[in-house]
Amino acid sequence: MDESCYWNQKTFAIVTGASRGIGRTLAEKISKQMGADSVLLLISRDEKDLDSLQKAIETDRPSVRVHVGVTDLSSCDESALNGVVSSALAGESAESFAHALCVHNAGSLGDATKRCTDLVSVNSCVQYFQLNLASVVVLNAIFLRRFASSPVQQRKTVVNMSSLCGVEPFSSLSLYCTGKAGRDMFFKVLAKEEPDVRVLNYAPGPVETNMRTQLLHQSWTEEIKSGGLGLTTEITCDRLMAILAGDSYASGAHVDYYDP
Length: 260
Fold this sequence. Notes:
The chain is of the alpha/beta class. The protein contains 8 helices and 7 strands, in the order βαβαβαβαβαβαααβ.
């Protein structure tokens, strides 16, 4: 059954990195496809921007309950993540949702001025991978375990916001490429282990966000600096929503915005 059959039904959805950029746009678009009594959990460390997004979505979609989870994924532990998900469910049974969706969008670039041989701080590397890999792995497990006993007909979808950097190396982006490659492989393994879960690694293309501005400012490589104008968050999020609705991707696949 294709993904579009599960939109407009009661859905529990998580979007990390939801306060701005791709995450904010995607949260808005997902909310428009959720049925009555759905729950949308927005996770970010930026409380002010999350609150404004919550108000905007609840005004546009009053039938959707929006829960703000102010969380720093670079330093939180599993108990904090469990608490955020539990608070969003607010006592509702996981079995009552027709669709459970988790979008792992949060991430950081790292210091694009550094070469591989400049990475001499263990603490800096650990903190980077806490945000960009470890928190993703743990939140994903918490999400799927929460819905593990749900009926077979309940749809479970996991989206990892990937990148071309997950499959190709780029100078000045050693940590970013490594984190994205690690996430891609983790979700490929997840798709193999959990055939009842639909898993997608989506590479959104070069998008005009704060991260891209940082990259163009910090990177010393002409390959990156000559990349030209990027996509809007609207365009790439529309593409992702179309891919999910079409449901023709192989679970665990890496699908790029520019793929046919």
